[in-house]
Design goal:
This protein is α/β, with parallel strands linked by helices and about 575 residues long. It has a six-stranded parallel β-sheet, with helices on both faces. The chain has a six-stranded parallel β-sheet with strand order 11-10-9-12-13-14, with helices on both faces. A six-stranded parallel β-sheet has the order 16-15-17-18-20-19, with helices on both faces. Helices cover about 40% and strands about 15% of the residues. The protein is globular and about 70 Å long. It folds into three domains: about 5-175, 3-Layer(aba) Sandwich (Rossmann fold), CATH 3.40.50.970; about 190-355, TPP-binding domain (Rossmann fold), CATH 3.40.50; about 360-565, Rossmann fold, CATH 3.40.50.970. Residues about 550-565 have low confidence and may be disordered. Strand 15 (about 390-395), helix 13 (about 400-405) and strand 16 form a beta-alpha-beta unit.
Length: about 575
Amino acid sequence: MKNRIAGHLLVECLIAQGVTHAFGVPGESYLAVLDGFHAHADRIHFITNRQEGGAAFMAEAQGKLTGRPGVCFVTRGPGATNASIGVHTAFQDSTPMVLFVGDVASEARDREAFQEMDFTAFFGPGTKGMAKRVERIDDARRIPEYVARAFATAMNGRPGPVVLVLPEDMLTQVVQAEPLPRVEPVQSWADPGALRQLRELLLVAHRPLVLAGGGGWTPQAAAALQRFAENWQLPVANTFRFQDTFDNHHPLYAGDVGLGINPALAQRVRESDLLIAIGPRLGEATTGGYTLIEAPLPRQKLVHIHASAEELGRVFQPTLAICATMNAAARSLEVLSAPPELPWTQWAAACHADQVANQAVSNGGLALPGPIDLPAIIHTLQRHLPADAVLTNGAGNFASWLHRFYRYTGLARGHKTQLAPTNGAMGYGVPAGIAASILTGRTVLTIAGDGDFLMNGQELATAAQHGAKTIVLLVNNSSFGTIRMHQEREYPAHESGSRLVNPDFCALARAYGYAAERVETTEGFEPALERALAAASGAVIELVVDVELITTRSTLSAIRDRALQAS
């Protein structure tokens, strides 16, 4: 073993785990690690961000895209608290991630030293915390052990984030230690008896419905899920913001179960006599506030398949609980023999027909306020974006148009195509899109609201610095639209705090090195998109929409009613 600085050893441990990119904002607390990135710049790249929240979102997106922990480095105190939004996103989205936090020197610990804080108390491991594990490395010789354990913890069971705290003086020690081998996630297989019981439940069902989503999916697992659905002719709905788990073009696709759910699909969930939930934890957004599936005892027979035993029975008491990772579960399900005739083929066809009608309806003949037809905009994206394009978004009313009208290519085709926060974090879309461009080189389209964009729009500077190219569709209604919508429902005519006075977004984008143009009509969008796709740099298309488009209660109700009639 050779002598090496601990900070360099840490970087070598990341390389051993297959990490090619780490995101972060540099801090004086981990200068030795930054020097390690410099020493190994031919094998690993440190992406310099402009705010720790953006860095953490990029690492979370990295975890979603690769299935292995995304890596983020921040300094203590303000750096760690800024990054916590990405950690919380990774926890609720079940995304593997490791956050490294530079800390005060050991001799200054527990004195409320400069920027000191209790990271275990703050990130609080557990179901009500933000991380699966929080650990401090005090002995530099144990860096390989801690890093390997962090990667294993982040990937195994329910995937999620791990926080490793790095005392500044520990990182400058000279040690003799070697990186440990690459950690692979453990596969947990379903109990054969439980699989037989699942088959028995299917054989007596008349209206089965699969709910697919959550973390831990690979292209191989998604392909096996598709074969299971085809063998049994099962309608499949994807859960909230995991819309690429099952191919949206497939004749068994039933839609997405989340915020703004198709009312016809919501009724299908209620009417189902057998729900097979594969992967999701069945959170509030997916269950319609615990009404589509009632807690603790659902009206429907519920088969819940999840990688973590702690999730099974935690909120819902299932008819059958199966603890298995997605790769193992899907491969077991695809060989589950189906009878030659099934009684629910018409039910499956009707579920898909509901979804086709929901996506085909533009505005149902209703005159939408303003000159922008957002459903038509999304259909234009569908025509022009390549099948493997990555679409990202943060949080806001604007995202509901994308979720409803865009048909995501399924992960079974080999690529993840959706990056979106199930915890509803604003500001996610821009940094996630930049990370996707850096990591994959594929076409990336981000849709952001005006309020959402300004949460992390400064990361366009990161894109320019590191050669990333994204297209940002910026939906500008001069409002925090979701909050305005809720205000009009709860306190009509009492708008308060939700109105925005915005900068010149096109000038701002150009200052960051992006091309930019402003679009005020539906007809103007398609040529603007074509120019953005052909541009050498990234591009921002500012889409100016009427605030009433997403906040008028009568408009929203009318669109919903038209969709119901069409289905």
